[in-house]
Specification:
The complex is a heterodimer of chains A (115) and B (111).
Chain A lengths: L4 E3 L2 E4 L5 E6 L4 E9 L5 E8 L2 E4 L8 E4 L6 E5 L8 E9 L8 E2 L3 E5 L1
Parallel strand pairs in A: 2-11
Antiparallel strand pairs in A: 1-3, 3-8, 4-5, 4-9, 5-6, 7-8, 9-10, 9-11
Chain B lengths: L3 E4 L2 E5 L4 E7 L5 E7 L6 E6 L5 E4 L2 E5 L5 E6 L8 E8 L7 E2 L3 E6 L1
Parallel strand pairs in B: 2-11
Antiparallel strand pairs in B: 1-3, 3-8, 4-5, 4-9, 6-7, 7-8, 9-10, 9-11
The chains are: A mainly beta (115), B mainly beta (111).
């Protein structure tokens, strides 16, 4: 039973480039959450998605950031025209469709470094 | 508000010592979660608490949901080297599904 899979684990981009981070939820999970973590800090909520639906993107910057969870395939967090401040670890979590209880299952994260 | 105050920020302890950390909030809520994060990994759920006063154990870990619903503590007994990592408290607000996270307690075990 595979857990939450994220790739790439590490990504290096130059300023102005685009970063795409992918997340495949646990089997049987249809809810995906993206969090950002800066060094020495806790996780900050970015966006909550279900298949083909953005439920809550209140934690995501209005510009340059977008997320999707298509009917087929992984969820994608896309950062356009990256800046140095985007350097962080981005974690994806998933939960089952019914009865959210706060028990999120996290992937190992994608670490973005912007040069 | 939505802030969680987690303390201490870091702990330097000897192997075998007991550890205690806590989280407080200015508002009440329905769920307390304790996660552990090791370097280079994602957070892993340790204990989930759902009722005020609830005391739950997971091996050498014990956590309690405060009676006032505004705080929680996590204890680790007889610490071992693999306990090192960052421990986060998290909670769900009353009317939202978003997790709010504490800043973490970094546990370091002295050789």
């Amino acid at each position: 039973n595979a857990g939450v899979m994220q790739n790439p684990r590490h990504l290096v981009r130059r300023r102005g480039q685009e970063a795409r981070l992918r997340c495949s939820p646990m089997k049987g999970h249809s809810h995906v959450y993206w969090y950002r973590q800066l060094p020495e800090e806790g996780l900050k909520f970015m966006v909550y998605l279900q298949k083909e639906n953005i439920i809550d993107e209140s934690g995501m910057p209005k510009e340059r950031f977008s997320a999707e969870f298509p009917k087929e395939g992984p969820s994608i967090l896309r950062i356009q025209q990256v800046v140095r401040g985007d350097s962080a670890a981005y974690f994806c979590a998933s939960s089952p469709a019914a009865g959210y209880t706060g028990e999120l299952f996290f992937g190992e994260g994608s670490r973005l470094t912007v040069l | 508000g939505q802030q969680l105050n987690q303390s201490p920020q870091s702990m330097f302890i000897q192997e075998g010592e007991d550890v205690s950390m806590n989280c407080t909030s200015s508002s009440i809520f329905n769920t307390w979660l304790w996660y552990k994060q090791e370097p280079g990994e994602g957070p892993v759920l340790l204990i989930a608490l759902y009722k005020a006063g609830e005391l739950t154990s997971n091996g050498r870990l014990t956590a309690q949901f405060g009676i006032t619903r505004k705080d929680s503590f996590l204890n680790i007994s007889a610490s071992i080297p693999s306990d090192v990592g960052i421990y986060f408290c998290a909670r769900t607000p009353d009317s939202n599904y978003q997790l709010i996270w504490g800043a973490g307690t970094k546990l370091i075990i002295k050789p």
